Amino acid sequence: MTKQLEKDIYQLKIGALVRNEFDRLISNNLLSAEMIQHLLDEKYAKLTFDVNYPILKKLIRINPLLN
Q: Which residues of the chain have pLDDT under 70?
């Protein structure tokens, strides 16, 4: 890790750091299917991160209505 990257990381707010790290993990396919299921689970999030909501949220694609 370069000194500049290290400095940038220390200056990031925790939310931005987490978001950036999740973007990296997802874009590089580094999360297993099992871990994704854990991160979708509210109980896992509470026990692991002490938050009252799941870390990931499943999105449902809806096709737009055609005229």
A: 1, 9, 65-67
38-55: burial string, b at 16+ Cβ within 10 Å, e else = bbeeeeebeeeeeeeebb
Count other Cβ atoms within 10 Å, centred on residue 16: 10
Identify whether the C-beta of residue 55 lies closer than 8 Å to the C-beta of residue 49: yes
Q: pLDDT per residue over 16-32, tens digit each?
A: 888 889 999 999 999 99
Q: Evaluate if pTM is beyond 0.85.
A: no
**13, 33, 60, 61 from 16: Cα distances, Å:** 5, 24, 25, 26
| CA 59 and chain centroid, separation | 14
